[in-house]
Hints:
By secondary structure, the protein is of the alpha/beta class. It is 46% helix and 14% strand.
Amino acid sequence: MSDNPIALITGASSGIGRELARVFAEHGHDLVITARRKERLAEVAAELGERVRVETIPANLATRNGIATLKKGLRERELEVDVLVNNAGAGASGQFVAADAAKSLALIDLNVRALTDLTHFALPGMLERGRGRILNVASVAAFQALPGMSVYAASKAFVLSFTEALSEELANTPVTVTALCPGLTRTEMVDDLQAAPDFMFASAAEVAEEGYRACRAGEVIRVPGVGNQALVTWLQYQPRWLKRFLSGIAGRAAIAATGTERGQEKDITATAASASSR
Length: 278
């Protein structure tokens, strides 16, 4: 690698992760990108390799072997991570009782275990070197329970809570941690919702740019979009029973929009570091 800071971006083969790779490259970061799909990673590396140095480490982060593969690759190449972007994630819609347990656990492994494991891996070195930033991609779903996407919303609530707590633990250090909480974004993860009105969606590029700016500024939480910000602010002042009731309506509507009925579980994930991109 050059003297440029190194950004490790998970789930970088498509969607928000791919756009984050572009943004960090535009701002002079060398990249280590990882995802499950080797061919997609090669495409990203070819696109950005003329600007900065790009290392690719294909890995399925929904598995312990995949996480170990990524960490081994970083050690063998002697790469020091200056910015950790925990973007890889998965989501699924449908009634919990009808969901496949293995898929639910794989979602938790990717959204929670991999993020936590990689933070454990990268943070000590950041503190030793006296610099570092962590960007965790959560969701507006982190702010309330979401029936119909119960495991996904709970996993993103973990990401938000973990980020907030860790930010306080790191308050007197040169390392910052940020939670990016996008709403609906035009990615493979929401292909089944493409019939929804355009105004409901942000572009992956817009979300990535906001995430980069928030990370650089050391903000703890960034919610892209005025509408999403208004929703999150409003939710903070509502009783839990009302939030639960309204999120139930929204969750059932989402199931209907994706064509997922009781007895059917439908993945709505993009494919990257495991079976998903975010």
